[in-house]
Design brief:
Elements (H helix, E strand, L loop, with lengths): L3 H37 L4 H25 L3 H9 L4 H25 L3 H10 L4 H32 L4 H26 L1
Helix pairs in contact: 1-2, 1-6, 2-5, 2-6, 4-5, 4-6
Length: about 190
């Protein structure tokens, strides 16, 4: 497992681009890790804040656009995977007309409901400017809190260097438990 000293040149050269990509895909974990590295001096915390907000908004817009403009098997597959069908979409579309802001803020802060809600916002044709403003206002405190967590508690994680013989069995056990859970859940749904 590489230590932070060996990663610092890579981060100073390509860190912002790597972090932005990770922030689009999985923002909370990437933001906490980047803030911890910023505390160590590998990145600038202001850059981490700005890129975390940008990455979160880019991810939101991509999901919104998938819902608004997506057609065909890709969108149907995504909707099926997140259980977003007509029985859920019709009430959700009406809910966006009444309280789209509230739905988006709650979904973004809970993180679990974010994906289906962002896709549904696009499918419900929520106005783009309203969507962006609401998403930005929900993102700012979330990113600030994640950066604070990473800055404050991230040092313990970056200084922790367990041996590989401990990490591999734990990761394997966690992966096996996840696969068993997913298979059982899929069998119940059939």
């Amino acid at each position: 497992m590489p230590d932070l000293a060996s990663l610092e040149p890579l981060l100073s050269q390509h860190g912002p681009a790597i972090f932005l990509f990770l922030a689009v895909i999985e923002g909370p974990i990437a933001t906490i890790a980047a803030a911890a590295l910023a505390q160590k001096g590998a990145m600038d915390i202001r850059l981490v804040l700005a890129l975390a907000v940008l990455g979160d908004l880019v991810g939101d817009v991509l999901l919104y656009m998938a819902g608004r403009f997506g057609t065909g098997p890709l969108l149907r597959g995504l909707c099926r995977r997140i259980n977003l069908d007509r029985h859920l979409l019709d009430p959700m579309t009406k809910a966006f007309a009444r309280s789209g802001w509230r739905l988006l803020i709650v979904a973004k802060w809970t993180h679990v409901a974010g994906l289906p809600t962002l896709v549904a916002a696009g499918m419900a044709r929520m106005p783009v400017v309203s969507f962006l403003l609401c998403s930005l206002l929900a993102t700012l405190p979330k990113v600030a809190l994640l950066c604070l967590l990473g800055w404050t508690f991230g040092l313990a994680v970056t200084d922790f260097d367990p041996p590989v013989w401990v990490i591999v069995p734990i990761a394997g056990a966690l992966l096996a438990m996840m696969l068993i859970y997913v298979r059982r859940k899929d069998r119940r749904c059939v």
